[in-house]
Amino acid sequence: MPETQKNNPLHGITLLMMLEQLVERYGWEQLGQRINIRCFRYDPSIKSSLTFLRKTP
Predict the structure, then answer these.
(1) What are phi and psi for residue 37, nearest 5 degrees?
(2) Does 39 have pLDDT greater than 70?
(3) pLDDT at res. 24
(4) Do 46 and 23 form a contact (C-beta atoms < 8 A)?
(5) How far apart are CA 53 and CA 41, in angstroms?
(6) Where does residue 15 fall: left (phi above 0), alpha (psi -120 to 50 degrees), or beta otherwise?
(7) Is residue 45 predicted with pLDDT exceeding 70?
(8) pLDDT value at position 2?
């Protein structure tokens, strides 16, 4: 691991990996309740969520 990333716990973790783990752990319904964003509440999918999360700062 490069010296600059030594203390970065998210190094090597992609947004896709994070989202898949969240969906596996909580499911879409709980994600929609916990995080009030449309892509988790209405017709949720990995693709729509990734599109939204990548465009939103």
Answers:
(1) -130, 145
(2) yes
(3) 97
(4) yes
(5) 14
(6) alpha
(7) yes
(8) 58
